[in-house]
């Protein structure tokens, strides 16, 4: 076994690698969230229109493909910021729409606070408990695919009830994804911090927008 010795502590090399991935992931996640917030703020200040569903999906999946393609190189970092910056841009018009509502600022702050609590709570639980949530992988993949297709159906057929159900599904699925990915890093299932960052960012983004939709509907603002 390859052992790293430091003073009186003998730490397995795998644990060192895992801690490095975890540290790099959270550092990059913080930077991408900040960058995404800046792009969203610029979009809001300039009152830019939403790019639309087709361009949003094309931009997201295209940049996600490039990020995955170059995940083991320095170009992968550039793709991460391109992806999260683009998602921040798509978020700006949505935030402007909610902030224009009578109770908009409170809705946005509540959704933001709820997202933070859920992410920190679930990440902390996975880190402290060290439980293995890898068994959730198949369920999450199938659930996200079903929710995504249902979301497209809600948009194309203008079904408000289905849209709310999809948002509720995404809240639960993104909470599960946070647990799954954090556990995946801890147990060595994810060794690339770029891909770990993207997964957690997408979970946070979808969790926030889904909570915003649900809160808006519950407050009679939609």
Helical segment count: 7
Mean pLDDT: 91
Low-confidence segments, given as residue ranges, are 1-10
Cα-atom radius of gyration? 19 Å
How many β-strand stretches? 2
- In spatial order, strands of the major sheet run 1-2
Shape: globular
β-strand percent reads under 5%
Distance between the first and last residues' Cα: 59 Å
Kindly state the percentage of residues in helix.
over 70%
Helix/strand order: EEHHHHHHH
Number of domains: 1
- Strand pairing plus helix content: what structural class? mainly alpha
Main sheet properties? 2 strands, antiparallel
Question: Can you describe this structure?
Answer:
The chain has 222 residues and is mainly alpha-helical. It has one domain (18-218). Helix content is 79%, strand content 4%. β1 (3-6) and β2 (9-12) form a beta hairpin.
């Amino acid at each position: 076994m390859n052992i790293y010795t430091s003073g009186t502590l003998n730490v397995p090399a795998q644990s060192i690698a895992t801690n490095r991935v975890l540290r790099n992931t959270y550092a990059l996640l913080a930077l991408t969230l900040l960058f995404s917030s800046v792009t969203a703020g610029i979009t809001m200040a300039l009152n830019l229109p939403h790019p639309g569903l087709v361009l949003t999906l094309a931009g997201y999946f295209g940049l996600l493909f490039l990020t995955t393609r170059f995940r083991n190189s320095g170009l992968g970092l550039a793709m991460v910021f391109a992806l999260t910056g683009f998602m921040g841009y798509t978020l700006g018009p949505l935030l402007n729409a909610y902030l224009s509502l009578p109770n908009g600022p409170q809705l946005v702050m509540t959704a933001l606070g709820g997202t933070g609590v859920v992410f920190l709570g679930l990440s902390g639980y996975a880190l402290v408990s060290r439980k293995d949530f890898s068994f959730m992988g198949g369920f999450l993949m199938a659930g996200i695919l079903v929710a995504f297709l249902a979301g497209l159906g809600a948009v194309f057929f203008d079904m408000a009830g289905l849209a709310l159900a999809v948002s509720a599904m995404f809240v639960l699925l993104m909470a599960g994804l946070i647990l799954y990915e954090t556990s995946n890093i801890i147990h060595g299932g994810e060794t690339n911090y770029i891909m770990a960052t993207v997964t957690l960012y997408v979970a946070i983004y979808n969790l926030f927008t889904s909570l915003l939709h649900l809160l808006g509907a519950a407050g009679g603002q939609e």
